[in-house]
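Weekly sync, protein design subgroup
Attendees: M.S., D.O., the rotation student, P.L. (late)

Item 1: inverse folding check
M.S. brought a backbone from last month's batch and wanted to see whether the design step gives back something sensible before we order anything. D.O. pointed out we never logged the input encoding, so this time it goes straight into the notes. Structure tokens as presented (232 positions):
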């Protein structure tokens, strides 16, 4: 089953597919599997933080953050995704349109959403981050590692197989690829287009939304810490 897709993104396979091409059932089947994301985030934030998680999916990272004692509000445009989360407050909304009238210690937007291949959509996503972070708070973003789509590849562990195929290097730092996931004998495909950002492009995008690049949480620079500009 497919729904109206975001530009450049598409997905197919059993169950519902979100507008960005994410297969809900794939995320349901893998929702207990973290790859250290929760540890990166937890190491960067204060105990008992209020967290606004944008693009939460089925709560794969929401749950460990709640278990650590953080208060998480989890947002996704897909009600089929948020329906799986019982451990935290959930909001069904596009990130672009979200205006809760509340501010949080931490705004978290992972899963490479900042790499959306449309500058205007990226600006709106970052505006929402800026709108919901406390003046003394931080925004945590996860960006694409451009090496991930350098070439076709297969990544496999005991839980799932991911085949990266049809990789294309596009103008202006964009890349596209087809990701084919196999989990417990079921297969889903997702076509993605990402816009890689140079540090200068990232800095400019953040500043346009009233944020500044404060540093990186990991040596590979895929995890970004940004803060409100006034705090500089
Ligand atoms: C790749 S999934 C990752 C989910 C979760 N962050 C994780 O790592 O398990 C991306 C999620 O972001 C949501 N999403 C993507 N773009 C969005 C937008 N502009 N507004 C709201 N949700 C969005 C999708 O519906 C999907 O659930």
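Designed sequence read out in the meeting:
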């Amino acid at each position: 089953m497919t729904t109206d897709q975001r530009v450049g993104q598409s997905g197919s396979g059993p169950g519902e597919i979100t507008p960005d091409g994410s297969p809900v059932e794939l995320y349901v089947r893998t929702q207990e599997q973290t790859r250290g994301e929760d540890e990166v985030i937890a190491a960067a934030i204060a105990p008992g933080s209020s967290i606004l998680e944008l693009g939460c999916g089925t709560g794969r990272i929401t749950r460990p953050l709640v278990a650590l004692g953080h208060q998480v509000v989890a947002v996704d445009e897909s009600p089929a995704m948020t329906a799986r989360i019982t451990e935290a407050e959930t909001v069904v909304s596009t990130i672009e349109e979200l205006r809760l009238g509340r501010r949080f210690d931490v705004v978290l937007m992972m899963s490479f959403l900042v790499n959306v291949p449309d500058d205007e959509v990226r600006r709106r996503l970052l505006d929402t981050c800026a709108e919901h972070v406390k003046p003394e708070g931080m925004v945590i973003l996860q960006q694409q590692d451009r090496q991930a789509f350098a070439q076709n590849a297969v990544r496999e562990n005991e839980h799932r197989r991911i085949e990266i195929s049809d990789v294309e290097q596009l103008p202006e730092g964009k890349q596209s690829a087809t990701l084919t996931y196999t989990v417990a004998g079921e297969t889903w495909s997702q076509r993605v287009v990402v816009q890689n950002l140079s540090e200068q492009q990232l800095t400019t995008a953040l500043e346009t939304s009233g944020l500044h690049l404060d540093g990186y949480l990991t040596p590979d620079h895929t995890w970004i810490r940004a803060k409100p500009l006034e705090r500089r």
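Discussion: The mean pLDDT is 94. The pocket of S-adenosylmethionine is lined by residues 18, 20, 22, 27, 55-57, 60-61, 76-78, 81, 94-96, 110-111, 113 (CB under 6 Å).
Action: P.L. to compare against the previous round before Friday.
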